[in-house]
Design goal:
Blueprint: H1 3-6, H2 8-25, H3 27-34, E1 37-38, E2 41-42, H4 43-58, H5 62-65, H6 73-101, H7 108-122, H8 130-136, H9 141-167, H10 176-201, H11 208-235, H12 237-242, H13 244-271, H14 276-287, H15 291-302, H16 307-332
Antiparallel strand pairs: 1-2
Helix pairs in contact: 2-3, 2-11, 2-16, 4-10, 4-11, 6-7, 6-9, 6-13, 6-14, 7-15, 7-16, 8-9, 8-14, 9-14, 13-14, 13-16, 14-16, 15-16
GO molecular function, one term: arsenite transmembrane transporter activity
Subcellular location: Cell membrane
Keywords: Cell membrane, Membrane, Transmembrane, Transmembrane helix, Transport
């Protein structure tokens, strides 16, 4: 691991500070960039995510993907956490904190909107950033692809009914254009580009060119992550400065949820005797959120300046630094997993 990867958390911290600073001194510039979107999918963010995940897609060997079905435990773990546990623990924590612990600090209407935003985060498992976390934990890229793909397919049919159930309403309007275009932009198109690239570089049956190409792309993946952080924090810089106390209140249950779900998944992976290259990405997928979708739905249902929209934005703010800490925990626990264990 080079010095850049070793101190990635430091660079991310500096990127967060840079985003907040630039967003406050040049809000109009960030407003213009934020307006470059379709169906709540920002084109600039999409390009940066491409920069992040394209190198990982090039590494996916489809000759190995077909063998994932022979070791389904990791996939089962991901699905159980994402669809049978995570949405409900998020809803429970939201209710506990904003209807009990923080009842004297937030008015009932705003509290309900905060809970709704948290629920939207809990029902939307991550799609794009998972490939970054998988790479940082040296996860199996082929297995990660299958886990993400299956989650995306389930999300298409399960997101609306689970959200409706937990919000207690029956008229949830899922922005399908956002959901489908996000999956297409962040998974399908980069994957196709990776397949074509891999095919062209392996024409002679030699991996030398492929390995050299991937090595050249690796720094760009990390730069894409840092640029994304700067933009995300720049978009919300004025809100961060204007409402720090509310952001702190929302962040507390989100942090408990994130670390709690990670350790539930981690414990289950250990008990299931998964290999580290499958267990680490499974825990990351179970923990992180599809924040683009959550933010879009919150804005569609409750409005741009609602408590629900703010809660989903706080989810964006805490996700990157928290996930980096979980990457560090996963990497330091490698010795606890048998690499040849059943996955």
């Amino acid at each position: 691991m080079g010095i850049f990867e070793r101190y990635l958390s430091v660079w991310v911290g500096l990127a967060i500070l840079a985003g907040v600073f630039l967003g406050n001194i040049a809000p109009d510039t960030f407003a213009v960039v934020a307006g470059l979107e379709y169906a709540h999918v920002n084109f600039v963010i999409a390009v940066l995510i491409w920069v992040m995940i394209y190198p990982m897609m090039v590494q996916i060997d489809f000759s190995a993907v077909k063998d994932v079905g022979k070791s389904p435990k990791g996939l089962v773990l991901t699905l159980v956490i994402n669809w049978l546990i995570k949405p409900f623990t998020m809803a429970a924590l939201g209710w506990l904190f904003f209807k009990v612990f923080f009842v004297d600090f937030v008015d009932p209407q705003t509290a309900s909107e905060y809970i709704a935003g948290m629920i939207l985060l809990g029902v939307a498992p991550c799609t794009a950033m998972v490939f970054v976390w998988s790479q940082l934990t040296k996860g199996d890229p082929n297995y990660t692809l299958v886990q993400v793909s299956v989650n995306d397919l389930i999300m298409v049919v399960a997101f609306a009914p689970i959200t409706a159930l937990l919000l207690g309403v029956s008229d949830i309007q899922v922005p399908w254009a956002t959901l489908l275009s996000s999956v297409g932009l962040y998974v399908v198109l980069p994957l196709l580009a990776g397949i074509v690239t891999r095919y062209l570089l392996q024409k002679k049956g030699d991996d030398t060119q492929l390995n050299a190409f991937v090595a050249k792309l690796k720094p760009w993946s990390m730069l894409g992550l840092l640029a994304t952080v700067v933009l995300l924090f720049g978009f919300q810089a004025e809100t961060i400065i204007a409402e720090p106390q509310n952001i702190a209140l929302i962040a507390i249950p989100l942090l408990i949820q994130t670390y709690g779900i990670f350790f539930i998944a981690f414990y289950a992976a250990k008990k299931m005797k998964l290999s580290h290259k499958v267990a680490a990405p499974a825990c990351m997928i179970a923990t992180s959120n599809f924040f683009e979708l959550a933010v879009a739905v919150a804005i569609s249902l409750f409005g741009l300046h609602s408590g629900a929209a703010l809660a989903t934005v706080v989810g964006v703010l805490v996700e990157v630094p928290v996930m980096l800490s979980l990457v560090a925990i996963a990497n330091r626990s490698r010795h606890m997993f048998a690499e040849e264990a059943n996955s």
